[in-house]
Amino acid sequence: METDEPYVVLYTGNMLEDTFRIRGIPCQKHLGLCLETQHPPNAIHNQQLPSILLEKDKEYHSKTRFTFTVD
User: Fold this and answer.
1) Range list of H helices, 1-65
2) pLDDT tens digit string along 35-71?
3) Measured in whole angstroms, how far is the alpha carbon of residue 32 from the centre of its chain?
4) Where are any strands of DSSP class E within 1-69?
5) Per-residue pLDDT for 12 more than 80?
6) pTM of the full predicted structure?
């Protein structure tokens, strides 16, 4: 994974209820993961971190590339 974002958050879904479904398929613990690139999650509340506020009428761009291989 390559990104210009400073942080990567891992979500596993292990706390989802058994009744939660994705495309009709029941979720199961340890069956998948999500990698989300982003700025510091608590930056809005921590003035020691760089500002994450977007200015009006300014465009925001970010690049993330996932590469997967199979042996």
Assistant:
1) none
2) 999 998 888 899 898 888 889 999 999 999 999 899 8
3) 14
4) 2-3, 7-11, 21-22, 25-26, 34-38, 64-65
5) yes
6) 0.66
Whether residue 28 contacts residue 12, with contact meaning beta carbons closer than 8 Å, is answered with no
CB 52 within 8 A of CB 44: yes
Buried b (16+ CB within 10 A) or exposed e, 33-70: eeeebeeeeebeeeeeeeeeeeeeeeeeeeeeeeeeee
Token reading at 17: 């209820």
3-class DSSP state for residue 43? helix
Residues 66, 68: Cα–Cα separation, whole Å: 7
